[in-house]
Design brief:
This protein is mainly α. The protein has one domain (about 5-335). The chain contains 17 helices and no strands. The mean pLDDT is about 90.
Length: about 350
């Protein structure tokens, strides 16, 4: 079955996957104490504020159609099976490098949490779609779950529940037929909106850099990591407003980024179409770099390598050639698993 592709969405996924890879390369260098500075911390926080919320909102939008046996199989083939394959692969690579394995399928390796979270979001999507206010209910769950310290790393439940509102915002936009209204509104005012978006993102980055020492001291990035509970963050008395505020800031930043995405065909489309390949294959590199000792570099060196290496990995892995090589793993037809053929 040939799927109709929307250049804007593929461009958006292409831009966001680039931010994911650059952010991960930056995180690797931040693992060294000398590279973990207030400036790198602020830039890392800036990326984390919007990149995964925007990605998950797009995933929700693309999951808005009624679930069918074909779509369920697609989720198993492209999310669950690749998760198991890459979790085993990363564990196998860890042994000769670190001397340990630590295989735990219920606690994803660095970066693999997204596959489990998205799979579970798609599983519960039909049930939430029956509700009158799925976005508000998911928001209430996102806040409430933060008060339970036991919900965190296992099965990526912390991020799954925390980021749930973005997924159902995407679903609602598709199911309520808001696409044409949003498109009509933005197209008529695209220049003004893009100027406003640049101002908003520049202001956000400037604020993060201005207050970098405070952000560094209190580990503000952990709030936008959407993983830790209120108790772990030591925010029990303020979490009821901090989590909604964080979600709102992430939503506004994500909207600003999405306003800047080109609507017509561009080279970014290929990256977007192959974003799953880029995500999974760069995760292997990401984990390996975490296991080895990297040199201490000056700030500009860290930022430069993060951008250059992140862009290189994205460009190389995002090619059609690599897609042909890894397609059996990423989007294999595992008919042998199912009771009947389609």
């Amino acid at each position: 079955m040939i799927r109709h592709r929307i250049p804007y969405l593929d461009n958006a996924k292409g831009v966001l996957i680039l931010f994911v890879v650059v952010g991960h390369v930056l995180e690797v260098f931040m693992n060294s104490s000398s590279n973990h500075t207030p400036v790198t911390h602020a830039i890392y926080t800036f990326i984390y504020i919007f990149h995964m919320p925007a990605f998950i909102a797009i995933a929700g939008y693309l999951s808005g159609k009624p679930r069918t046996e074909i779509s369920i199989r697609r989720d198993i083939n492209t999310l669950l099976i690749p998760y198991l394959i890459f979790e085993l692969a990363i564990t196998s690579l860890r042994l000769p490098i670190t001397g340990t394995t630590n295989l735990d399928l219920l606690n994803p390796s660095r970066g693999l949490w997204f596959l489990l979270a998205l799979f579970m979001m798609r599983v519960i999507s039909p049930y939430f779609s029956l509700l009158k206010f799925p976005v508000l209910i998911s928001l209430a769950i996102s806040i409430a779950v933060g008060y339970f310290p036991g919900i965190g790393a296992p099965l990526s439940l912390g991020r799954f529940f925390a980021l749930l509102p973005f997924y159902f915002i995407g679903v609602a936009i598709y199911q309520k037929g808001y696409t044409s209204k949003i498109s009509e509104f933005t197209v008529k005012r695209i220049v003004q909106l893009r100027i406003f978006a640049v101002i908003c993102l520049s202001t956000l980055l400037l604020l993060l850099l201005t207050f970098r020492e405070t952000i560094f001291r209190y580990k503000v990035w952990r709030i936008f990591y959407y993983k830790d509970s209120a108790i772990v963050l030591d925010l029990e008395n303020h979490f009821y407003w901090i989590r909604p505020a964080a979600l709102l800031i992430s939503a506004l930043a994500a909207i600003a980024v999405l306003l800047l995405i080109p609507r017509k065909n561009s080279f970014l489309e290929t990256w977007g179409i192959n974003s799953l390949n880029i995500y999974l294959l760069h995760i292997v590199v990401f984990n390996i770099l975490f296991w080895v000792d990297l040199p201490d570099l000056p700030l500009l060196g860290v930022l430069g390598i993060a951008v250059l290496l992140g862009s290189l990995l994205t460009a190389v892995i995002g090619t059609k050639t690599v897609d042909k090589l890894v397609r059996p793993i990423m989007r294999g037809n595992h008919d042998w698993l199912y009771s009947k053929k389609l």
